[in-house]
Sequence to fold (264 residues):
Amino acid sequence: MNTDIARIAEALDRSARGAEPLAQFSGTTPFSLDDAYLIQRASMQRRYADGEHCIGIKLGFTSRAKMEQMGVDSLIWGWLSNTMVEEDGGLVDLARYIHPRVEPEVCFLTRRAIDRPLTLLEVADYVEAVAPALEIIDSRYQAFKFSLEDVVADNCSSAGLTVGPWSRNFSGLDNAGVVLRLDGRMAQASSTAAILGNPLRSLVQASRLLHGAELELPAGSLVMAGAASAAVALHPGMHVSVEVQGLGQSSFSVRRDNGGVGHE
Ligand code: OOG
Ligand code: MG
Fold:
């Protein structure tokens, strides 16, 4: 493996494990988008070598709200591992994160292996279930600032997620209300239509991206469709919930006593 790829993958992996931010690479060691995806895979390989396993993938920047918030306008994708799953309705400890933010999503569970590019008409057949979900993103870069290549190398800021109840209620998924509540108060109201017009299109995109990378996603994988609205910073003691019309809720509380925030 190219030494730069291995070196950057190691630095990102260390940063994630130690919850210590680092400087962006694009300023000093620029690399291509293709290399960024190799770095992301190399950093995940380090985690798998230590016993973690892959549970699926996530799409990023599938909504205009997210692209505008982060100043990036290309769809990206990264990997989810078992250690990223936080208990639905449980307590999240900020100590293992750097400067975490939460965003409202929907999550799919695949029924069949995704092994070729799929059309929108075909994807429903590949889905076992859908659930409301919250993604906790945590850029490993200082001040949560990055270029497209930096964020892809950083596994698209993947860090944590909660997944609510699974259902097979796919009707209306193209325009279901999404409400993010912080401490019980509505913080954002959006629609699943904000996610590529229909979150099932995230699966279409995922199938194309996987095909382009010559990879297959096994049945029983999670696919996070991407946030419907902008991410918000997490603070100790906060309660966060997402409600997706027709699907129900996912939520968590942030532990009060923590020494993990304020690394910057
Ligand atoms: C990158 C991850 C984007 C989404 O849902 O759009 C993402 C970031 O914003 O740090 O997860
Ligand atoms: Mg996301």
Notes: The chain has a mean pLDDT of 95. The pocket of magnesium ion (ligand 2) is lined by residues 58, 60, 103, 105, 135, 137, 224, 226-227 (CB under 6 Å).
